[in-house]
Amino acid sequence: MIIVARDLGQVFSSGGRPLAVLQDVNLEIAPQAFVAIVGPSGSGKTTLLGLLAGLDRPTAGSVTLDGQNLNELSEDERAKIRAEKVGFVFQTFQLIPTLTALENVLVPLELRRARGDGGPARLEERARRLLARVGLEDRAHHYPAQLSGGEQQRVALARAFAGSPKILFADEPTGNLDAATGRAVIDLLVALNQEEHTTLVLVTHDPELASRAQRVIWLSGGRIVSDSAPSAPSARSGAP
Amino acid sequence: MTRFVLGLARREGRASRRRLALYMGSISLGVAALVAVNSFRHNVQRAIAAQARELLGADLELSARHPFDSTVAALLDSLAAAGTPVSRATSFASMALALPSGATRLVEVRAVEAGFPYYGKMETDPPEAWGALAAGRHAVVDPALLIQLRAALGDTLAVGEARFEITGTVTQAPGDVALRSAIGPRVYLPAAYLQETRLLRTGSLARYLAFLKFDPPASVQRFLNRYHQLLRAHEVGYDTVSEREQELTDSLDALGRYLGLVGLAALLLGGVGVASAVNVFAKEKLDIAAILRCLGATQGTVFAVYLLQAGLLGLAGAALGAALGLGIQSQLPRLLADFLPVRVAAAAHWPSVAAGLAVGAWAAVAFALLPLLSIRNVSPLAALRRDYAPRPRGWAPERLATIAALGASLVALSVWQAPTPRSGFAFAIGVSLTAAVLAGSAWLLSRLTRRFFPARAGYVVRQGIANLFRPHNQTTAVTLAVGFGVFLMATLYVVQRNLLDQLRTDRQPDRPNLVLFDIQTDQIAGVLALLEDRGAPALEETPIVTARMAAINGRQVHELLADTAGPRPSRWALRREYRNTYRDHLTASEALVAGSWWSAPITPGAPWRISLERDLAGELGVRVGDRITWDVQGVRLETQVANLRRVNWARFEPNFFVVFEPGALERAPRSFVVLTRVADAAARAELQRDLVLRYPNLQALDLSLVQRTLDAVLGSVTLAIRFMALFSLAGGVVVLLGAIAASRYQRMRESVLLRTLGASRRQIARITATEYLALGALAGCTGAGLAAGAGWALMRFFFEIPFRLPATALAGLTLGAAALIALVGWLNSRPALDRAPLAVLREMGD
């Protein structure tokens, strides 16, 4: 198992009163799986994603990522895990506005550069190849503001795969795109996922997108209410 | 990882470089001031060291308040006979009358023997005039004197009863400060004809000098070791080259260091600019930092990326400042020429430049640290959720450590730059207090506006006032920057005005403007009659009796001087020649601080009552009731201290250390000082001419002339200080521009949203104007208020003269500051007003 969550819980205090956002979440994800986490707004999807990726510490339970218990790691050690094993795709693209498309793709490559990745030329070569793979080789020197939403998300995809991550977390990757562009981005995401043998964990409330996953985890009120293959989601009562 | 930091800092900095550059400009001004002043200070030191011998013109200068007695004269003669060059001179004040112009002026006469100066050169015009001085009844004078006396070379100069031909002017005298000639223009006469003036009699205020040249120069010390006791016993003071060099270096160094403190203030102001810029910068970069953290960058890496940007920009700003400073320091010798007795070369002093660079870069980093901590502590979760609110962080250890480091570096920098560690600490405390008061009033303003929000005011005013306390407000930064600038400028102004007001005679019609002194007892009746005749009766007639102290409470002065154990009255106070007066009343510039005035009649047989000036009593260690025995030109006189007075010495009136009760001194040899007022300048000149022609020994001081001179002197001093303060003000404006520009993007978004919602351009312009006018008024008022306080404290404790608040001028300054800020704020908001809302919105889109 590449991701293991045990009795995971997250409690925030809201106006002095504790607010349980996530409770008793247990799940295991196999390598190279494509898992969708779905649920209504406020169901704890994004919180779960953040905890699985080690962006925050849970108030209860633990997350093990590729054999490493995240609870035992310091802030900087978790950052190192992210640099080496994790990629991200965000709803709002989150490209760094002050860097060009090529430079954005280079960031993870340079961050994890340590074990004989080759010189700057080799890194740039890989970044260019990835940009070409998402069809943006001629936009390498454009800034995010000069790109359309779909183009920005394709650059984000290139960046996410740049570091050859074992796991890719995607948070509503089509949420800010129109239907056609969204579909194209998903096609690319799925294709890249297969090519690079990545584990893909995707948060969405788009049923069509969820239906392409091998496994769908339904969240409601901070608990897992169902966990299955996407063939018949509508058969389950209480699920949206 | 280092490569990553460097690479990202470089790439990421491209966009912010232009915007942050303005802030780094505020560092530049401070560094420029420091580099200029410190480089100049070292140049002055080098010049003094190189020209030390020329400053004195000899290896040793002996001086006495009375003619050298037979023992000292014999010593000098034997030295001369043994081959040591000796040149004597006599220096005293006298009236000089030019003919044919008939103009008169109080001058400083220097009757010299051939030989002086042994080092350096007396440069005259024509050049041969100095060498030919002793060849006849010649006079060589300061060039300014020719103008004042409306005289030309070849004219006659009457000094006392002698007549001299003006044969040249002195263009450069060794060790002389140009400013001197404004106070007492020099007249050089050959010593051989000194007697003919008949000006020197016993009791005349003259300095008797002898200049000696030793071979080798180092043998001065041997001479002094041998004769030190003898010279002291005969009341002869001495000055060596190294002493003169040390005195001069010390005083000019102190001046340079004070100027340096003003420069440091400018740098700190720049630091405030950096902090406020980096604060806005850091807020804008939080999103990027969160993304970088998501992508696996550590806290340290992200922090380093931005700290490096700040540091490099700071270094660039400091480099720009250093270059600017080198340019400025080449101008300083000219600006301060009147104060400098040496020729100062404008050479770059590289250690000062290096120090400026280091201090500038350090200030940029130190002030950037605090706001950058928020970048360090950003959670990667913020990239995932827009609404992510960071958990509140209180006084985290790294915050406290940063603040402590800032405080420590402020103290270290102040002590490094200040003349003494004490004044360095005082400066650091003063700066901290000023900053605290300014920051406090900014905080108070936002609290009060929130508390007493003008809810009934119009929309525009409500919006403008609300801007003072909304998130991302610039209240503290602008108040600090502008308030500090106003404070510095206003303090200088208040001090200068108070000092000059003390001397203003032309404003008050009853104040005297002509002082006549050294009037002898047999001349006083004639002088008074002449004044009456010219319609300028004497306003005050003060007798003066010279005397020396003989004993205090029965202990002879020579015993007191010899006593080395225990607290001892100061040597200066015991040995000086006192010019005392007697009267039955206190004057306007005096106030009783202890004892009582002599209103009761004299008790027969009791000692005469005297009044001492407070500080002199302190120097002598005497109190009311103590007894002082005086030697009044050979006659012993017993007195008792009846009271102590505080004297305002800054008033241009005859003031005295010691006042006797009437009856004590009437039979002693006296001279008189007479004060009068002649409104018309021409009549005043005519009166002086006639007095000098009839009584050649009498001296007349035209107070309006003195005042003009002091105006000029103070003007030069304040020009130098203002020059440095200008850096602070310019720094304040740069910080202001920066603070406004930094928040401009955000403001632009707000303005555009408001316009999209239907606000008119006029409304938005007025909102901005309201906000900045309120800010400017606060900064100006606080700065001016602090300046009034500082001015009062300086007048009260340092200058010890009464304080007057130039309220109108301060109010003007405050209004000016407010208007300036409103203008700058309005100009900066214009881009948002002039463009289509959609274009701006798209440009700023996420």
Word description of this protein:
The complex is a heterodimer of chains A (240) and B (846). Chain A has 240 residues and is α/β, with parallel strands linked by helices. Chain A has seven helices and ten strands. Chain A is globular, with a radius of gyration of 18 Å. The two termini of chain A are 29 Å apart. With 846 residues, chain B is an alpha+beta fold. Helix content of chain B is 56%, strand content 16%. Chain B contains 26 helices and 21 strands. In chain B, the strands form two sheets. A six-stranded mixed beta barrel of chain B has the order 2-3-8-5-7-6. The relative contact order of chain B is 0.11. The mean pLDDT of chain B is 82. Chains A and B meet through helix 1, helix 2 and helix 3 of A and helix 1, helix 8, helix 9 and helix 12 of B.
Q: Which pair of protein chains has the largest interface, and what are the residue counts?
A: A-B, 34 and 32 residues
- The number of helical elements of chain A comes to 7
The coarse silhouette of chain B is elongated
Total E-strand runs of chain A? 10
Strand count, sense and closure of the main sheet of chain A? Answer: 6 strands, mixed
- State the total count of DSSP E strands of chain B: 21
Which structural class fits the helix and strand makeup of chain B? alpha+beta
